[in-house]
């Protein structure tokens, strides 16, 4: 059985980078890096009447670093504050990022996003909304410099994007496919 012998902090910023020394049944020690920034949420707000969803587009430094286009839609998402309820965090992120006040949210999973590298465990939610639930333009908090563009996308277009492998973001793909399974009537 593999066990952690020790950890040390290598970087302490928006995220922490830790180096863990592990050992296996054979007693041999080896190191692994851990990206540590805590738990997160993602939510797909969808309007069942108009059959649309609210998504965001924002620059992503890792994607740009890899030389890839960074203009793909994503579901609203963010990090949870210490002790914050995941559903409340999803509601907060939706209001900040896309300007919608959500009531009920439906849990769609609780997943490790990159279990080989990161401590991030993400709660996934689906959330219906109506036109009157829009509270503003969204766009995120100015002090976070997210440069968010809000998109309203027809669910049929999201279905087509999923079918042609054109959704680049994993959390978005998971939530679109989950909504398709749970509410196929919305994609007719």
Automatic annotation (TrEMBL):
Look up the record and give one Gene Ontology term from the biological process aspect: nucleoside phosphate metabolic process
Listed name of the protein: GDP-mannose pyrophosphatase
Please name the InterPro entries in this protein's record.
NDP_pyrophosphatase, NUDIX_hydrolase-like_dom_sf, NUDIX_hydrolase_CS, NUDIX_hydrolase_dom
Task: Say which species the protein is native to.
Answer: Lichenibacterium ramalinae
Q: Which GO terms describe its cellular component?
A: cytosol
Family to which this protein belongs: Belongs to the Nudix hydrolase family. NudK subfamily.
Gene3D superfamilies for the chain: Nucleoside Triphosphate Pyrophosphohydrolase
* Single GO term (MF): hydrolase activity, acting on acid anhydrides, in phosphorus-containing anhydrides
Keywords (alphabetical) are: Hydrolase, Magnesium, Metal-binding
Any idea which positions bind Mg(2+)?
A: 77, 93, 97, 146
Keyword Coiled coil found = no
Q: Residue numbers of motif Nudix box? A: 78-100
Q: Where is the Nudix hydrolase domain?
A: 36-175
């Amino acid at each position: 059985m593999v066990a952690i012998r020790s950890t040390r902090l290598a970087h302490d910023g928006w995220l922490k980078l830790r180096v863990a020394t592990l050992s296996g049944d054979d007693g041999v020690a080896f190191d692994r890096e851990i990206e540590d920034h805590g738990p997160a949420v993602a939510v797909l707000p969808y309007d069942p009447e108009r059959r649309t969803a609210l998504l965001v587009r924002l620059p992503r430094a890792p994607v740009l670093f890899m030389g890839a286009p960074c203009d793909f839609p994503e579901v609203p998402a963010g990090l949870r504050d210490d002790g914050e309820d995941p559903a409340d965090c999803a509601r907060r992120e939706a209001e900040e990022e896309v300007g919608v006040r959500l009531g009920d949210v439906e849990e769609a999973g609780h997943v490790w996003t990159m279990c080989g590298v990161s401590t991030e465990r993400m709660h996934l939610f689906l959330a219906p909304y109506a036109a009157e639930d829009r509270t503003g333009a969204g766009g995120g908090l100015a002090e976070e410099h997210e440069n968010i563009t809000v998109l309203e996308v027809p669910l049929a277009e999201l279905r087509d994007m999923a079918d042609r492998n054109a959704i680049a973001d994993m959390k978005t793909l998971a939530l679109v496919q989950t909504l398709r399974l749970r509410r196929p009537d919305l994609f007719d």
